[in-house]
Every structure is written in C-alpha cells, then in structure tokens.
Amino acid sequence: MDETTRTVLQRVVRKVPATRLREVLRTWGRVPARQLDLLDFSTSKFVLFEDVRSLCEVNSALTELLMSLFHFIGNPAQGVWRACHLTEPDVELRQFKEQFKARLTELISNVSVKIKKHDDEAVWIRIAWGDHFHRPNQLKPTYVVHHLQTPYVFVYNLSTKHKPLLYQALVLATRHGSMKDSHLSGKSLTSIRDFLMRSYQQAFPTKYARPLQEKNTAPTNPNIEKEHAEQEEKRLQLACEAFGEGNVPRLETATYKLETRYRGSGNETLNNREEPFRALIKFSSANLLVSLNHCVSAGMAETPVTPLLSSITQKGKNYFVITDKGSGNSSQSMVQKK
User: Fold this and answer.
1) Collapsing DSSP states into helix, strand and coil, what is residue 139?
2) Distance from the CA of 171 to the CA of which of 33, 67, 162, 205 falls in 20 to 30 A?
3) How far is the CA of 176 from the CAs of 116, 135, 335, in angstroms?
C-alpha cells in the first residue's frame, strides 16, 4: 500500500463515526465478512485503522478510494455543494460512465475517476485531478452527483481551473446542449436537491383564509380582534406562498450583489457618480426559508413580500446580481457543446 492510499484510508477511518464504521466497511467490500466480525470497534481509531489496513485485500492503489466515495455518499453534508443545470436530452448509466471517463481523460491526462450508482438512482463521481507533471491528488477530490433522469448536477470542491473541464465532459457524456450554473449553493445536498426539484410542501394563492390555531387571549373589541385575525391570516398565507410551509429545504445563505446607480438623498458625491454603486448583501441563518417565513408571518417584514426575497423559491437560486437593467438577473457561466 503506497503512502497516498494509506493516507486516504486513514482519513476515512478517522472521519466515520464508530457506530457507522462497520456498515461502511461492509459496503466497501474489501474486508472479508468473517474477518469483519472479529474487529473490535470499541478500540481507538488508530488501532482500528491498523487492523483494517492489515486485513485489506489490496488489488491496486486505487481500491481504497472507493471507501472514501462510500463514506461521502453516506455523509454528504461536509462542505458547500453547488447546483448546475444541464439542458436538453438524457442518457443511460452504462453509456454515461463510458462517455464521461473517455471525455475527461481526453481533456486532461492525469485524472482518477470513480463512479458509483446510489440507491436513490443518483450517480456519484469521485475525481482526483492531476496534470502533465503530477499524479492525481487523491487527498483533495471533487465530488459530483447527477440524477440521470433530471438536468441537475451537484458539485463539491471544484476549482476554477478544473471547472470548464468537468462541464465539458458532462455536456459531451450526457449529450446535452450546454451546462450552466444554477446559482444555488448550500451545505445540505438533500435540501438543495429538493429545492430545485420542488420536492417540498408549497402554498398557492387562494381567496379563502386559512384557519389559525386558537389562542387564550384576553377579551378585546370584537371588530379589532377580527381585523387583527384577518391580517395575521393574510401574512401567514403570503409567507407560505413565498417561502413554503412545513418541512422546507435547508438553505443557509442568500447573497445579493448590487451594481446600480446610487439613489440616496443628501449625498451629492455618490449621486453624481457615473459608475455604478457596488455592494454585497448576504442573509444567513441556520434555515433561511424558515426565518424569512417567520419574519413575514409575525409582521416583522412588510407584505406583499418583495420579489428580491420571493425569487429565492420562484427561481430556485440563492445568488443574485442586481443591476439597473433588471432585478435578479444573475450572470451565468455556461459551457456550450463543441
């Protein structure tokens, strides 16, 4: 076992919780089942790693990398995932595997690619990048998740240098016309996937007010109480229409990049500038959609909801560029099929 393979295996054993390590090793399939039952998972990770390493049936230097892929499939919320959008047709799994590996190796000589189909029909790809002078770096891989029957691709840890190579390989392998950024990112892969595929409870405009839960409040003027109840019902309906209701996808941020003329009062210096006023505004929360819903329904934000916020769910994005020519027009990075 070479030093790179040893380091990758050691990192995965250390990262996987002891309660899940047996399941990951069994899925990996490199440790015989009868010997796996003899491992003591209550010992330290250092001792456990040495036991696993000694039991491995090493056929090549890259077999241990499959374990890294299996671990990442089971624990995808380890960084920021970015969504991309393919346009036009789809392709079957076997053909996709062959075409993707062939196209990527044509674009870059030293590259390591591992592909695995998950239970939810998603194709997981692990890519280690190299160049003409260096072997693939197995310690900093890129992960790609693609549902073959959808146009969506989710990417983790992709550098600017390798972005056009990956996009071009995906476009050619899937026989799509182009690929562009969706301007949607988040730490939860499941959430941004459900967000793009609209797999969450949504509310739609209605002329019928929704009933509110009863509250034990002191007696008040019936007319005032009725007016307050109607306003509260309206705010709740508008909040759910804009940001969903119930168990909504978890987004942590929404970013707005402003490139507009300054329109404030009392500052002639900024008002007379010809070049645009630039600023970056970022909203962050443990669950941004839930927080925005609460702000609107509780009356802390004005209604109707501004399109700058409702566009998060309507356009499926959380990064926007605001210009004088139009609001919410994000600059799109696109790769066309050659």
Assistant:
1) coil
2) 67
3) 21, 30, 10
Enter the DSSP assignment of 210: P
Phi-psi region of 164 (alpha: psi -120 to 50; beta: other; left: phi over 0): alpha
- Residue 132 tokens, joined: 């003409």
Determine what percent of the chain falls in helix, strand and coil, rounding each to the nearest 5.
40, 20, 40
Q: How far apart are CA 45 and CA 2, in angstroms?
A: 20
Q: How far apart are CA 283 and CA 256, in angstroms?
A: 9
Provide the whole-model pTM. Answer: 0.63
pLDDT in tens, 107-133: 888 898 888 887 777 888 999 998 888
Lowest mean pLDDT across 92-101, 147-156, 230-239, 260-269? 260-269
Radius of gyration of the chain (CA): 25
CA dist 301 → 73, 143, 293 (Å): 39, 39, 9
Contacts of 153 (CB under 8 A, 6+ apart): 83, 84, 85, 86, 144, 145, 146, 170, 179
CA atoms of 216 and 171, how far apart (whole Å):
59
Q: Which residue has the tokens 């039991």?
A: 55
Residues in the chain: 338
Task: Give the tens place of pLDDT for each residue, 64-102.
Answer: 455 555 556 656 666 788 888 887 665 677 888 888 888
